[in-house]
Amino acid sequence: QQKHPLLENDYIGWFLLQHGQQHLETIQMVLYQKALKTESATNSMAKKFNALEPVPPTASFAEGIYEVGSSDVLACDNEQPLHEVKLSIFQIAEKPVSNAEYLAFMQLAGYQHEGFWSKMGWQWVTESKIHAPEYWLSDTSGNWFTVNTEGFSDIDPNAAVSGLSWFEADAFARYAGCRLPHEHEWEVAMKADPELMHSTGKVWEWCANIFFPYDGFRAFPYERYSSPWFDDNHYTLKGSSPFSGETVTQPSFRNFYQPEKRHVFAGLRLARD
Fold first, then answer.
1. Which phi and psi angles does 168 have, rounded to 5°?
2. Which of 46, 58, 139, 268 has its CA 20 to 30 A from that of 227?
3. Tens digit of pLDDT for each residue in 209-222?
């Protein structure tokens, strides 16, 4: 007797596990937002840290035909099918941008420098009056500290910056004389180099491109799992955060959010031609 498609290869169990882990990460986002709404520790004496210039991308990949996507029967519908893409020569950073590197952008008045921003990004940043990552707060001396579910703590200068919108990630990349990677570049690099893949898991990493269906896309297990978000208003994120489940840590996994969203545990990795 033929099994229902949802029962083949234990798909339904895997799908529920993956979806459940994604919701657990969403709960962490809510808890972080709640922590931000608590009384600000304005009297805290945050430990000052020094800014660093951004480290340019050094991992190089030649022009060629590469495979992206997945043929795994347990992969999400938007990861399928496995297919070939042609990429031009590119370089990608060996790790995500750090807090210290992002501080350099802020100290250069990056949030007030229109030249670093896209047209939509500049409109967003001027209207929202954003001037720091989502989870950064400043003490009475102007030093930065961070917030999490356990309270307030010093910022680790070497840790990946988190709490950025796509607009902020794009602006930082422009400031650094670089760009955000296309998701195909990101995926190809991570599949090719295990050391690069080991550098993920710190933050979700914004990519340059909007979230789109691959040729041959087939909605599964239901029509509205991915299809509604192919709306030209969601951008792809790759990688994972410390709160992500193991089911999303493969290079082909595609996350997606609107460009102004900052509650996501998201940062960036630099790329260039």
1. -70, -40
2. 268
3. 999 999 999 998 77
Check: CB of residue 202 under 8 Å from CB of residue 159: yes
Return all residues near 160 (Cβ < 8 A) that are at least 6 apart.
95, 96, 97, 98, 99, 202, 203, 267
Give the CA distances from residue 134 to residues 13, 267, 271, in Å, rounded to whole numbers and listed in that order: 35, 11, 23
4: its two tokens: 């229902």
For 144-179, write each residue's pLDDT tens digit. 999 888 888 899 999 999 999 999 999 999 999 999
Question: What is the rounded distance in angstroms from the CA atom of residue 240 to the CA atom of residue 243?
Answer: 8
| Residue indicated by tokens 């087939």 | 218
Distances (CA, A) of 180 to 42, 82, 167, 235: 34, 23, 11, 11
Three-point CA angle 7, 8, 14, nearest 5° = 70
Among 94, 63, 128, which Cα is nearest to 269's? Answer: 94
- If one looks up domain 8-272 in CATH, what number appears? 3.90.1580
Report the percentage of the chain scoring pLDDT > 70. 93
pLDDT in tens, 53-85: 999 999 999 999 999 999 988 889 999 999 999
Domain ranges of the chain: 8-272
Which residues are bridge partners to 160 per DSSP?
98
